[in-house]
Amino acid sequence: MAGSGGPLTGVKVIELAHIMAGPVCGLMLADMGADVIKVEKIPGGDDTRRFLPPGVKGESAAFLMMNRNKRGVAIDLKNEAGKDVLKRLLKTADVVTENYRADTMDKLGLGYEALKRINPGLIYCTISGFGRTGPYAQRGGFDLIAQGMSGLMSITGEGPGRPPVKVGAPVTDITAGILGAMGVAAAYAHKLKTGEGQMVDTSLFEAGIVHTYWQSAIGLATGEPPGPMGSAHPLNAPYQAFQTRDGWITVGAANQKNWLRTLEILDAPELARDPRFKDNADRMVHLQELAALLGKIFVRHSSADWLGRLEKVGVPAGPVLNVNEMHRDSHTLARGMVVEVEHARVGAVKTIGLPVKFSETPGKVARGAPLYGQHTREVLAEYGFGSDEIAALIKKGAVVAAD
Question: Cβ neighbours of residue 66 under 8 Å, at least 6 residues apart?
Fold first, then answer.
């Protein structure tokens, strides 16, 4: 059986999700110990398998990342025998996750109401572009669309008058997956107390909205929509990136004490006396002037020099790393955020680790992403299918098994 020994050990999850948001939910649950069985379509499986390049010995790097720690089966849900197989798995499952368009599962006869009749304790987690209610419920959605409609693209970028910019990472996909996993964990706590299952419904749209807490606070209070500010903060200053002699650093002098400490290491006591920068409210009014003055100072010395000085006086600061530099960073490695797992075809593969640590029930990344249909025979046998029955299902095309 799969499962990492984490706090969700023993929880059975059937993942009907593809690409990213749903698989993020599944990998979070799997990393915390749940037995996540990924059900892939016939033919071809999860479209992420074809996100090439880059690949690792022919396997999609994207698929390897999103689906480690899961077991994989291939079932044709348009085949009646395939549907029966899935229903048999779901009869004793704790959770099912899916991220199809609103009516897809209902058309297949596998919507929440139908599955609830099979298993009243089932937690049905649906992640979509806009959720299952409201005027946009029937729309499909991608991260780019959600970032635009949630307000994120209006507050991301270098400044006013520039073209809209999306956040570099697919934050609504990833956040929707995390929100889904949080919802599943909460619903499972309720199930432990009552035996009742329920639907958990979240979306990329809402995942984008929750990233606007500060900007929404401003907009709701003032009636004016905030705009992009580069790396600066909408409520505190100085709190942004500055160019140094050999790179970029971020400086979080976001309160009066840290502001005065920063002036100490900048050797710029005159700025403390400047009425434009007296307190945070004044600094925010004169943010562009402040950034320009500080920028002229920071560019005089190296990143390492400034970071050493800032750390010495206790001002939060850090280098701006690229992704590969982040992977090699000593703290990344110490926190177990880059780990190695074995893949059936590729061998050792590096992947991202579990971002939540538990003192008593630590989770971990225990297995590589599955080959297409790798665990079909194994999983079906666990759920009571005999070898002849499995062979017949394979012959009918209802399932695919990798031998």
Answer: 20, 23, 24, 27, 48, 369
Euclidean distance between CA atoms 85 and 107, whole angstroms: 17
pLDDT, tens digit, 9 for 90 and up, residues 366-388: 999 999 999 999 999 999 999 99
Start-to-end C-alpha separation, the chain: 19
Name, in order, each residue with C-beta under 8 angstroms of 278's C-beta and a sequence gap of 6 or more.
Answer: none
- CA atoms of 106 and 256, how far apart (whole Å): 57
Lowest mean pLDDT among 125-129, 157-161, 249-253, 354-358: 157-161
Residue ranges matching CATH 3.30.1540.10 in the chain: 248-319
Question: Which residues of the chain form CATH 3.40.50.10540?
Answer: 12-211+329-400
pLDDT tens string 34-67:
999 999 999 999 999 999 999 999 999 999 999 9
Please tell me the distance from the alpha carbon of residue 273 to that of residue 78, in angstroms, as a whole number.
73
Q: Sign (positive/negative) of CA torsion 183, 384, 398, 74?
A: positive
Find how far residue 273's CA is from the centre of its chain. 45
DSSP state of 230: T
pTM of the predicted model, to two decimals? 0.94
Determine the distance from the C-alpha atom of residue 227 to the mean position of all C-alpha atoms in its chain, rounded to a whole number.
25
Residue 173 annotated among the catalytic residues of the structure: yes
Per-residue pLDDT band at 399 (split at 50, 70, 90): very high
307: helix, strand or coil = helix
Contact 148, 226 (CB under 8 A): no
State which fold the 12-211+329-400 domain adopts: Rossmann fold (3.40.50)
Which pair of tokens denotes residue 151?
């307000």
- d(CA 179, CA 172) in angstroms, rounded, equals 10
Q: Cα separation of 398 and 78, whole Å? A: 9
Over range 96-125, report the average pLDDT.
95
Catalytic residue among 31, 35, 173, 201: 173
Check if CATH label 3.40.50.261 holds for domain 248-319.
no
Strand partners, 338: 352
Model confidence band, residue 3 (pLDDT cutoffs 50, 70, 90): very low
Closest alpha carbon to 341 in 72, 67, 7: 67
The C-alpha atoms of residue 170 and residue 280 are separated, in whole angstroms, by: 32
Per-residue DSSP letters for 266-293? HT-THHHH-GGGSSHHHHHHTHHHHHHH
